[in-house]
Amino acid sequence: ATDPLHVCPSAGSKPVSSAGTWGNYMCDSPWILINSSIYAMKAILPDPDFILWTGDDTPHVPNEKLGEEVVLEIIANLTALIKQVFPDTKVYPAMGNHDFHPKNQFPAKTHRIYSATAELWRSWLSNASIPTFKAGAFYSEKLLGPNTKGQMIVLNTNLYYDSNNQTAGLEDPGGQFQWLEDVLTNASKAEEMVYIVGHIPPGFFEKKRSKPWFRKHFNKRYTEIVQQHHGVIAAQFFGHHHTDSFRMFYSNGGSPINTMFLAPGVTPWKTSLPGVHNGANNPGIRVFDYDRGTLQVKDVVTYYLNLTHANLVAPRWEREYRLTEAFQMPDGSARSMHMVLEKISKDKHYLQQYYQFNSVKYDLTECDESCQTDHVCAIREVDFLKYDECIKARSFTAVSTLPAKPLLFLCSLLGLLSFQGHLW
């Protein structure tokens, strides 16, 4: 019999009774699952305008289990697979916090891993992008396609991660903030819209109260840039959480001005972050419908593989939901996504539906009032202070509305997106 402590390295010291051919919720994706997800993308949408690859390609294991060569080999293997299945499709890849060695410790200067990764992705990058990628793993590219006018800005937000000791004392690591502002200013002058892509998002993790990712001053600067330049930012696309969620950005007057879509992961791995309840997910991939002229997101369609069913019966990638149908919205604009948030915050049906989508139908338990507060505040408030205020206000409301009699309350890796106009 297989030793349950040695089924998969990413489970750490936790026992895994059976990995199954297609994987286990305690483990990172086996190659057969990764391979299946890319071919599922091809079957769903054979010719997307482009693919967004939001990073985290290596397993969740201690640094001593990996090394620079292993990290680069894994990135190379995934790159080769995507090129094999989508040989003629433009890909915009971003580095995740695990796509470096040691993990999380991205420097704000040139590094051999940046240079090696740039060479692996050279066929996807323009000549102008190579120097900025090698200097800091960020770049911008003109969007290609019929009747398409705009830019794709790909950031290295690992520079802002609170687990990154290399950038702790810096104001603008690698000059990325200033570069971003320059790109956005030039886009405005050229009357172009942009998409922003990255791995680690600003704000808080919706499955763990008061858990931010950015250092406080980095979070503030990023939020201010979005507020100042929102007129040219059509949408933002990030990963890291492995969960399906979104983040809203508002003007100082409270109007919805931008949305960040957070993609579910292909890896089903149950997070090791302390305090997270039911932190695994079913593997997910998604297609964005967008307007090639304005870059406005028209719809989001998420597909998934039920891992339990795949192991017991057969693998089947199926549609999980279409945004406009599930939430009765006309499109994926900031105004519409604000209304989705309003439904989640006020209607138990939409809350529960969102909550099941959040883990790609892995966690089917009820999202109680405390759970609702965590999700609503994380979606609504990216700003640190406003998030704290939201938690306090909703918690106070929940307590103040309790009936007099006592009650007992029994109280989510690889992110792959495809755009059609269509895109992945």
From TrEMBL:
Subcellular location: Cell membrane; Secreted
Keywords of the record: Cell membrane, Disulfide bond, Glycoprotein, Glycosidase, GPI-anchor, Hydrolase, Immunity, Inflammatory response, Innate immunity, Lipid degradation, Lipid metabolism, Lipoprotein, Membrane, Metal-binding, Secreted, Signal, Zinc
Recorded topology in the membrane: Lipid-anchor; GPI-anchor
Record keyword Iron-sulfur present: no
One family name in Pfam for this protein: Metallophos
Main location: membrane
Signal peptide (residue range): none
One of the GO biological process terms: innate immune response
GO molecular function per UniProt: hydrolase activity, acting on glycosyl bonds; metal ion binding; sphingomyelin phosphodiesterase activity
Cofactor(s) named in the record: Zn(2+)
SUPFAM superfamilies registered for this protein in UniProt: Metallo-dependent phosphatases (SSF56300)
Domain Calcineurin-like phosphoesterase: 46-243
Domain of life of the organism encoding this protein: Eukaryota
Listed GO CC annotations: extracellular space; plasma membrane; side of membrane
Span of domain Sphingomyelin phosphodiesterase C-terminal: 255-394
Family assignment from sequence similarity: Belongs to the acid sphingomyelinase family.
PANTHER family according to UniProt: ACID SPHINGOMYELINASE-LIKE PHOSPHODIESTERASE 3B, SPHINGOMYELIN PHOSPHODIESTERASE
Function noted in UniProt: Lipid-modulating phosphodiesterase. Active on the surface of macrophages and dendritic cells and strongly influences macrophage lipid composition and membrane fluidity. Acts as a negative regulator of Toll-like receptor signaling. Has in vitro phosphodiesterase activity, but the physiological substrate is unknown. Lacks activity with phosphocholine-containing lipids, but can cleave CDP-choline, and can release phosphate from ATP and ADP (in vitro).
UniProt subunit comment: Interacts with TLR4, TLR7, TLR8 and TLR9.
Name of this protein: Acid sphingomyelinase-like phosphodiesterase 3b
